[in-house]
């Protein structure tokens, strides 16, 4: 299990609802959460070791948001 962190522009519950189906479609992800109280809107992803940060960034972009690895 690996924990990855990303800065995002996911800022509210509506944004979280928009990215949920995209992140939930990745079977390698065990758990994920966005800290919307943090000014950098940190997305934390717990996933299997074979999931790359690039895959998560591309998935977030498909949902219409921006993410960069911390």
Order of helices and strands: EHEEHE
Instruction: Quote the average pLDDT.
Output: 96
What does the radius of gyration come to?
11 Å
CATH topology: Alpha-Beta Plaits
Structural class: alpha+beta
Biggest sheet details: 4 strands, antiparallel
Number of distinct helices = 2
Helical fraction: 25-40%
Task: Note poorly predicted spans.
Answer: none
Oligomer: single chain
Task: Count the E strands.
Answer: 4
Query: DSSP strand (E) fraction?
Result: 25-35%
Total domain count: 1
* Widest sheet: strand ordering: 2-3-1-4
Shape: globular
What is the CATH architecture assignment?
A: 2-Layer Sandwich
Distance between the ends = 18 Å
Summarize the structure.
The chain has 70 residues and is an alpha+beta fold.
Question: What does this protein structure show overall?
Answer:
The protein has 70 residues and is α+β, with helices and mostly antiparallel strands. The chain has a single domain (2-69), classed as Alpha-Beta Plaits, CATH 3.30.70. 31% of the residues lie in helices and 33% in strands. The chain is built from two helices and four strands; from the N terminus they run E-H-E-E-H-E. It has a four-stranded antiparallel beta sheet, covered by helices on one side. The chain is globular. The mean pLDDT is 96.
């Amino acid at each position: 299990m690996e924990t990855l962190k990303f800065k995002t522009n996911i800022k509210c519950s509506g944004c979280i609802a928009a990215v949920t189906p995209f992140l939930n479609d990745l079977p390698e992800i065990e758990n994920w959460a966005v800290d919307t109280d943090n000014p950098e809107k940190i997305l934390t992803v717990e996933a299997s070791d074979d999931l790359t940060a690039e895959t998560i960034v591309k998935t977030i972009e498909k949902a219409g948001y921006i993410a960069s690895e911390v």
